[in-house]
Amino acid sequence: MPSTALPIPTPRIAPLQPPYPDAIGTLLTRMTPPQAPEVLSLFKVLAVNPALAERTLDLGRYLLGRHAAIDLRDRELVILRVCARCGAEYEWGVHWTGFADAAGLGEAERRATASMDGDLAQLAPKDALLIAMVDQLHDTGTIDDALWEALNAHWSHAQLIELMMLAGWYHAVSYVCNAARVPLETWAARW
User: Fold this and answer.
1) CA nearest 162: which of 90, 41, 102, 78?
2) How far is it, in rounded angstroms, from Cα 151 to Cα 128?
3) Tens of pLDDT along 49-101?
4) Which of 26, 45, 117, 141 is the most buried (most CB within 10 A)?
5) 93-118 core/surface letters (b: 16 or more CB in 10 A; e: else)
6) Are the beta carbons of 85 and 170 closer than 8 angstroms?
């Protein structure tokens, strides 16, 4: 788990603040899930480039939506682990607070997703495979044959493609959170 002793850095790209121009306000409304307590700081940073932010909507909605090929638990384990491996406390905290309960995740999964030396033996075997997948993708950019076969026993090829895209998508989100220094949400979990 990344250190909690680090000071919170000043944002490099300040989130947009209201009043928003009409087009930006509409975009932020479309980006914000109905259950979110407020417009997320990440979205207010992405909206600095409205054309790109607009284009992220469809992929983000698919990967997080009801029509995704991956169930909520699997999806959230991948997202949380990617964010932790990238040191993206912002996105890890938003997802832990927003989805962990609904995904049926508890303390063992919290430790495993947030810790670099987490004990995967405490996880269900299928959950441990997802953590191992994220770790291999993060460390090597690929998945070795043994892990691929183990993953292939639980997920279809279509689902495996989606899992890899999900990991890559949240790598990109983590890069933005970290490099732009998106301010942490006051309501979100911390490491």
Assistant:
1) 78
2) 10
3) 999 999 999 999 999 999 999 999 999 999 999 999 999 999 999 999 999 99
4) 45
5) bbbbebbbeebebeebbbebbbeeeb
6) no
